[in-house]
Hints:
Blueprint: H1 4-20, H2 25-52, E1 54-58, E2 64-68
Antiparallel strand pairs: 1-2
Helix pairs in contact: 1-2
Amino acid sequence: MPSFEESLKRLETIVEQLEKGDLALEESLKLFEEGVNLSAACKQELEAAEGKVQMLVRQRDGSLNPEAFLAEKQ
C-alpha cells in the first residue's frame, strides 16, 4: 500500500494528465477512476490522523487531560 505522500503525488500527476485533455476517452476514464480511489484513500487517512491528534490541556489540579483537536476554520 502506498504512503499518503505517494498517493497524493500520484493524484497530482493524474490531475495534470487529465487537465491536458489529450488522452483517449478510455484512458481518461481509467485515470479518473484511479484518482477517485486515491482521493478516497487520502481522505480516509487524513480523517484517521485527525482522530489521533490530541491537545493536552492542563487542569487546575495540574493533571494533563487529552482533548480532541479541533482545527480552526479560516
